[in-house]
Amino acid sequence: MFIFVKKVDMRIFIIFTLLYINQIFAYLNAQGIDPWVIAAENWDKEKYAGVTVANGMIGIVSSQEPFKVKDVVLSGAYDLYGRGRVSNFLRSFNLLNMQVGIDGEQINKGNIQHLKQTLDMKNGRFSVQLDFGDKAFITYSYYALRQLPFCVLMDVSITAKKDITIGASSVMEAPDALKEVQNYYNEIDRPHVVISLLTSLAKSPTGKLEMAASTSFLFSEHHGNEPRVIHEMWDNNMHLMKFSKKLKAGETYSFAITGSSITSAHHDDPLNEAERLTIFSKLEGKDRLINNHKAAWQELWKSDIQIVGDEQAQQDVHSMLYHLYSFVREGSNMSISPMGLSGLGYNGHIFWDSELWMYPALLVMQPKMAKSMIQYRFDRLEAARRNAFNHGYKGAMFPWESAGTGVEETPVWALSGPFEHHITGCVGFAAWNYYAMTQDKEWLRNIGWPLLKETADFWASRVERKGPGKYEINNVVAADEWAENVDNNAFTNAVAITNLKAATKAALLLGIVPDADWSLVAQNIPILQMKDEASGKIITQEHATYKGEGIKQADVNLLAFPLKFITDTAQIRRDLYYYAKRVPDSGTPAMTHAIFSLLSSRLGESNRAYQFFKESYEPNLNPPFRVIAETKGGTNPYFGTGAGGVLQAVLMGFGGLDLTDKGINQVKSTLPKHWEKLIITGVLGKTYVVE
Known about the structure:
Helix content: 25-40%
CATH class of the domain at 36-300: Mainly Beta
Number of strands: 29
Largest sheet: 9 strands, antiparallel
């Protein structure tokens, strides 16, 4: 194709060239599903579910309003307020919100055209492009900087279609829950740079925490030619700093905002630290910040899942991995709530969702992230000991809902707090699996062993000893949470046995004499069975009074995987067929069908495995970014628990990865018929392929 230009205003030529290039990219993207990029345009404004950019410490949730973000959430920042008289995640200052105007007219969703939003999962970047009438074409991107846990960056580019004046403001606004807000503005003048700092400090609702945030502009001009920055105080909860710039038609102007947010849960002096981190980020410079951020994500993506033959499944699985990678951070000693850093869902609390659903995929793909999740539990071991003491037990009893301190944080109206004891077995199981994956005996001695010993001591004191084969665990909320205050729940009993056996194995590995009572108890905890009246076959019974009623989520089937407690394939198949019929079509959490998919794949039933795979998340997707909600038709994304379940179905089901006491290997597995190949890279430096 040849373009001849004769006596054409070069500024107009540049504008039309940019528009033409955008049309070319739009055409190319329409030809297939990008494995790394999810693009959204022309969405239903009433059905917009934001997508999260996060770095394991700070999460930014998108908005459909230009130059706005919906939420900024910090991992580990909790206070007592709102739902249930228990600790809740705190919203941070919305430090990436901006006001941008052109020729005095403020840009908003009502006066723009051709709005497009894009999530680039490979590079951890959220981008927006839009037209502001005949005046400007605008793009901006923001990042939760992977190399700097408390820092963010927004990069803005404005191309003028005619001569214009732009006005841009960095706006700092405090969430309603924060109190005693203090606003600061400071300019640090050095021979090589002027640093304008917009900073706010506030107290959490009870005053327990201090939260601070700070931002600064990054200008492209050489020092001395930067725009003049002006500070404005609007009210106690909001202030801003702004600048203006004249542009000629065809001219493109770029600037950026960097900032940080931190609390006294993370640092003893959050006000000064927020400003120091912002100064550090500013003087790193935009290019260095973005390049280091991309390099960090490139390192993470060395551990990847590649699906050949199913473009949509490939994009969806990348999205699930992306979100789990975004929600936890190596070295942070933080775990993941069911909704990760996508908002305030479930108050940001840590449940069994962490150890049983999200942790296994991360353990395989990113063991150092998994290590942080276990460290979170170890750091709260003393609180678990006190919890056991309060309930008349020995050892450590981990809370059903855990937040900052590790005490029980379940609202009192939910019976799961006092009774859903299988969480303690899940913690012990996860600790043993970290050793199994890494074979790190030093870690086992210092971290894993204390967790395994204390959780085993809990179960030994928890059972009611009624004779051989009758060391019962009564009065629990089952893993199937519709079964409350039942006896001898299948999953609770099986995970207790698994925990007791793992503690014994760990002791022997470390040259420690194990408590003989652990083996005695493990041998005598019952797993109940019953006859299916319809088929006459023997089924594993969910609990002592279970008679075939509907179930909320997987329970018995977890004994086949991940516990591998039931290994007889005929029994696994009977239990799978029986309980798969008892999950209602709506109102139940996403991860159950993922386990059905995994088990079907291991049983060689590829068609059923694929149908369960699709059912495990597709009915739960929300537009425009295909973010997963907890239930079919639900609107509370992002449900990291569901993503963790689906990833296990891919890795351990279709991929055949199998974790043993001696490490990971690969067993026979079955791919969906139209998947040509499954490639799993970066599993402790190895690649696994299924064709």
